[in-house]
Amino acid sequence: MDIRKLLGLPDLLDVRSVVCVQPHPDDNEVGAAGTLLALAERGCKIVFVTVTDGGAGVPNLTMSREEIVEIRREERLNAGKLLGVSEQLELGFPDAGQYTEQEVVQRLIPILREHRPELVMTVDPWMPYEAHPDHIKTGHAVVHAMLFSGNNATQRGAGEPYTVPQIAFYASSHPNTYIDVTSYWERKLSAILAHKSQFENAEWPLLSNFFAYQAQQLYQAGHMEARADEVRYAEAFKLLSVRQLHFFPTALYS
Fold first, then answer.
1. Which terminus of the chain is less hemmed in, N or C, by CB atoms within 10 Å?
2. Domain of life here (predicted)?
């Protein structure tokens, strides 16, 4: 049974509004820039929400944390312009800090109720071996906010209740949706490279080759057709309805 079709939910590329919640500046670009470019071309409203300030992302002892945060903010804004992002919101929690998942949930619920997106996108917190606490807290906070933003008993005075219909996890080990991003690949790399503090270094040739290899493997995993002489790229997501986020054991295999 395809519960998403049963509920009449649109395909990923057909949604008209999306809120993309990332742990750090650059996560949305690495995980989903090609798909976001495709959505923007279709007129989708894209809102970025960045949970942390990125202040732990540059191991440079000559700069203060405040300087690093400002650099990463400018990089994030520049990358968003390349992707056609409509609005950028920052929660400002300390990168790798001691904030709690519940604090993030309380900040996200009013955002979901205000923007009322057809889809939320974020990192998959259940990816095996994911060790970064910011990624785990962010992913969990997003699904908790989805469950409770439609329930006025959970957070009063934070706008009219609204239930987000579905979620797309990138960086998922159990994807069920593959998007051909071949025509957007170079622009995706440009958006990633807009985060110069993270990627403009000696490791970029190796890292970009890894991104390309990974995307080619995802294209094959999605069983999309290509000529033998073609090089094609895909991004992959675990796409679930909100109903599959509670008491739904088969969501893993959906």
1. N
2. Bacteria
Cα separation, 142 vs 244, whole angstroms? 14
Reported as a single tens digit per residue, the pLDDT across 33-52 is 999 999 999 999 999 999 99
| Burial of residue 133, with CB atoms counted within 10 A of its CB: 0-12 exposed, 13-18 middle, 19 or more buried | middle
Domains of the chain, by residue range, sit at 3-240
> If you ran DSSP here, which 8-state letter would residue 130 be given?
-
pTM, whole model, 2 decimals? 0.96
| Type of residue numbered 240 | L
pLDDT (0 to 100) of residue 227: 79
